Amino acid sequence: MQDSAIAKPQATRKVPRATNNPLPRANDTDTLALEILEKLTYSLGKTTSVARMHDWMDATCLAVRDRIIDHWIASTQKVTKEHSKRVCYLSMEFLIGRLLRDAINNLGLSEPVKQALARYGVDLDLVELLEPDAALGNGGLGRLAACFMESMASTEVPAFGYGIRYVHGFFRQEIADGAQVELPEDWLAHGNPWEFERRETAYEIGFGGKVTMVEEPGRPPRYVWRPAERVLAVAFDTPIVGWRGKHVNTLRLWSAQALDPILLDAFNSGDHIGALLESNRAEAITRVLYPADSHQAGQELRLRQEFFFSSASLQDIVRRHLQTYDSLDNLADKVAIQLNDTHPAVSVAELMRLLVDIHGIEWDKAWEITQATFSYTNHTLLPEALETWPIHLFERLLPRQMQIIYAINADLIRHARLDKGLDDGQISAVSLIDENNGRRVRMGQLAFAGSHAVNGVSALHTELMKETVFRDLHRLYPERIENKTNGVTPRRWLFECNPDLCKLIEEAIGPGFRDNIELLAELDKFADDASFRDKFAAVKLANKQRLAKVVEERLATYVDPKAIFDIQVKRIHEYKRQFLNIIETVALYDQIRSSPHLDWTPRVKVFAGKAAPSYQEAKQIIHLINDVARVINADPAVRNLLKVVFIPNYNVSLAEIIMPAADVSEQISTAGLEASGTGNMKFALNGALTIGTLDGANVEMLEHIGADNIFIFGLTAEEVANARANGHMGQPVIERQPLLRAALESIENGVFSENDPGRYRSLAGSLRDRDWWMIAADFQEYWNTQRRLDELWLDRAKWNTMAVHNTARMGWFSSDRSIGEYARDIWKAGPKSIQAIS
Ligand code: 26V
Fold first, then answer.
1. In a domain, 342, yes or no
2. Does residue 201 share a domain with residue 62?
3. Which of 65, 97, 142, 241 is 20 to 30 A from 2 via CA?
4. Burial readout 10-26 (b: 16 or more C-beta within 10 A, e: otherwise)
5. 736 lies in the same domain as 595
């Protein structure tokens, strides 16, 4: 360390240290400046003169973290004292993004922290940028888990999030010559200031081996599983602080370690590599997040990940329960376990094993406890995404759990046949074992059978679940499926990402919306107030300027903030139809070139999103967008009336810049395929107008926002199903639509890929053929609807009125409301005030 003097803080220290009975600390700039300086000095060993920006980031996180810990201790003590029921949210993915701004904002420290850092000549905005964006998730499912964690803390629902501490999160995306390139992500490279390793909280996880039946005199026979392989799951805890710091929950992520990190025998005999083999094999389990969300991974490592985190979480839940209560009989009264999709569904069998084999509970009683404890959320109907595992793999890796699944299945089938009179066809549909595709375990059926409640994530999706994937199970258990429409946390997705809009809202309706987001409805009456509208539009323009700067920096492309910002950001998938959007872009380009004298409305088409590395069609779509962008942006004939940009490496932090900057939000999935969508909510909350199909939560957004304030087009889910059943083909439709025909021809003839003219022939061909995603079928209506938006842009007052209505009417889509419904209807947990939501 250099010997330069440590900068003297301007206040003398009056702050009490954190104790088990935390006292509130002062929230003024002096105190925070002192605390940050202390962290810099004593935790990081740096003086202000040598500190780098990274050090300031760490020091700030650590200082803020201390304050969270005060609340964390208080929350934990309260929950323990009151014996409150806890929610355990089991999810393979938590797409949390950065935490510093969230923490500072929820603790009400934005200004003092900013000022405190300014004293040292440090800019908080720049410090925030240095925090890695924790991308322990693929997309919607993982981000929902993160929003739910924040909302459970904010609504004071006692909760644990359980997941995996992947060393490498979702890959970093670069675009090279127009194509996606995947690079490893390394969020832990500089350490993680938010987490606490809990070495004492570690469990053994078994794989493989044998099951034997043990018979002892005077006792019923029991099964003993002797795994061939054992690894250790070690807990890492991150505190999640809720709004106004009222409550803090825990995100507990498991990391895999070998029981024996170095095999001494091997080491001593000179085999230094062999000595580490076990370690490498164990640590591989939590090394990397699977980057696919549309088709099932199928690899053994994925099943190992699923069992690893399920078993660790359940052992933890059972151990903690037995610390307080002397039996597991009341487990379901004290714990609600939510399965986030089928990824943790093996938990159903594992809890049965713990209850029956380890704790000696009789089978029927154990099953009752299991069903009362679990509930399951389905997030997709795509058949290729529904998880199933070959029986031989399951049996080899998890022999006892396989036996338990057979036993559960036997009970289920007996009930279905004898009590409900199902026929063979129906029995094979409800069975936990798929006998038709080489015998596989169906994880959806397992999760359904083991839960007392099963939910979809939007009204439409829930209805479709009843009619499709779970049709026969729904007939067998008609009370089990219910709907819980998704939501997004307004703290991150409005307060933090759009502070200027919040200031404006507060001037209009007062600060109440910050504690009850549904009060945003009071903004409705300002929608026709010209001066308010103008200010609303001015905030939007400033947010667009901010995005334009990012585009300029990252792509060296100028986009005019005065043009319509028409944005589609999400995972790249055929069903999400980025292809439809880019074809419409090409058609518009053709029109501008052929009728340059017309009064075209300037537009910027913004795309971002990642494709699964093995999803060739999705990668082609990314390539096409970039190829189209290159040609259009370089064409002087377009005169900046149309620009296309693909911003690489879409992640939570980029979304926070994009959402407030959109005029138009593209939510154009083939109807019936997007379970809910949550980006749709973030955009509308920030005042974008949606162009969308009647899919997922768009349907409910239409109900809340009103048909006059949203642009709906296209086939309905029912029409899509009928068209597919009737053998719909794209070619006849294309023949009738000259715009579509010309656009498609230019794409397939290499206008945008001159160096490789055949590049998009098969992609375009898929539209002429089955047109499975109904792109040809929906094109004309999509085009017409876009032109209505163009026209509306000319009447800016009307546009702005509609934008205000969008923000005003999106309060219901808060994840606080979703969590309130889960708490009331499924978990029976959380404060009475939360469970009493209407
Ligand atoms: C499936 C698989 C299959 C195995 C490989 C890894 C993997 C990872 C994720 C998934 C499930 C993806 C399902 C999903 O993300 N669904 C999205 O959930 C959102 C939250 O409910 C919802 O808003 C989106 O509409 C839905 O697509």
1. yes
2. no
3. 65
4. eeeeebeeeeeebeebe
5. yes
